[in-house]
Design a protein that fits this description.
Number of strands: 2
Distance between the termini: 23 Å
Shape: elongated
Number of helices: 2
Helix content: 10-25%
Radius of gyration: 14 Å
Strand content: 15-25%
Strand order of the largest sheet: 1-2
């Protein structure tokens, strides 16, 4: 669970990209997958985004399948 301090009016213009990595000490980190939430999302992620925008100050929980495409390089 995480929170961001942002005006509700600005939220509709934002995109949240969440990537999941397997962190290994002394080895390269392994990209597991990611999702995009926002106006450019598709399917269930887009539905979830709209539901969050409609229900200000309400916790909306959903499970999402991670997509294994376009990893962001790890540090």
């Amino acid at each position: 669970e995480f929170f961001y301090d942002i005006k509700h009016n600005d939220l509709a213009k934002k995109t949240l990209e969440l990537s999941v990595w397997d962190y290994d000490i002394g080895k390269a980190n392994d990209y597991i997958g990611s999702i995009i939430m926002g106006i450019n999302a598709k399917g269930d992620c887009l539905k979830h985004w709209y539901e969050c925008l409609k229900n200000k100050d309400k916790k909306i929980e959903r499970w999402h399948t991670l997509y294994n495409a376009n990893p962001i390089p790890s540090d």
